[in-house]
Amino acid sequence: MDTNRLSKKMAAALNDQITEEANAAQIYLSYGAWAAGEGYNGIARFLFRHAEEERNHMMKVLEYIIKRGGAVKLAAIAAPPDNPNNIGSCFGKIYEHEVSNTKMIYVLVKKCMEEEDWATWNFLQWFVKEQTEEETFAMNLVDKVKLAGNEKSGNNAMYILDRDMDSATGEVASATDVTAVNP
Ligand code: FEO
Q1: Residue 87 and residue 169: Cα distance in Å, rounded?
Q2: Is residue 35 part of a domain?
Q3: Could you read off the pLDDT of 9-34 as tens digits, one per residue?
Q4: How far is CA 178 from the centre of its chain?
Q5: Residue pair 112/68 in contact by the 8 Å Cβ criterion
Q6: What's the number of domains the chain is made of?
Q7: CA–CA separation, 158 vs 87, rounded Å?
Q8: What atom of ligand 1 comes closest to residue 53's alpha carbon?
Q9: Quick one: pLDDT at residue 154?
Q10: Is residue 179 part of a domain?
């Protein structure tokens, strides 16, 4: 008896998403290692924590495929991109990567609608919400470094940014934590 509840195309697309999340983890790890090499140890640890969150996303998709009776097929992870030139470009690249991941999720959601696979559509809504938060998280990183004046300030502002990010959570806040009185 066939207990697979995922179409071949859907399983392939979800497996691609596993690779995408693993790639994201690799990018955060690589940028974190670069930041540590530049002396930004607080930012490095922040990026390492976020790499773990990307691995959690990967596991979420992997477990869903198994739960639906599909086959998990892991693929090679691409080499991370070249190191950024500075913290500003590092955060800018992170933002671009998050937007590109959001686009992949949207393609998946569209596929669910075409196939009328409502279980997978429902599963992916978590990622739609998560990506909205991840984009905000990355936008905030870009803003923070702009405020600090990037490396041009050469100084105290970047030192404080690095110190503060050491204790910042690597995880995005749930949208439900935001209320009118506690924005
Ligand atoms: Fe798994 Fe940063 O998205």
Answers
A1: 18
A2: yes
A3: 999 999 999 999 999 999 999 999 99
A4: 20
A5: no
A6: 1
A7: 9
A8: 1
A9: 59
A10: no
- The answer to whether position 43 is within a domain reads yes
Helix %, strand %, coil % for the chain, to 5?
75, 0, 25
Residues 1-10 as b/e (b if ≥16 CB within 10 A, e otherwise) read eeeeebeeeb
Nearest-atom index, ligand 1, CA of 50: 2
Which token pair is 164? 């503060």
* Residue-range definition of the domain harbouring residue 30: 8-171
| 49: in domain | yes
Which residue's CA is the closest to the ligand 1 atom numbered 1? 54
CATH of the domain at 87: 1.20.1260.10
d(CA 104, CA 109) in angstroms, rounded, equals: 9
The pLDDT tens digits for 28-56 are 999 999 999 999 999 999 999 999 999 99
Q: Is the CB of 165 under 6 A from ligand 1?
A: no
For residue 176, pLDDT beyond 90: no
Average confidence score pLDDT of the chain? 91
Query: Which residue, chain included where needed, has tokens 């439900």?
Result: 176
Comparing 174 with 131, the larger pLDDT belongs to 131
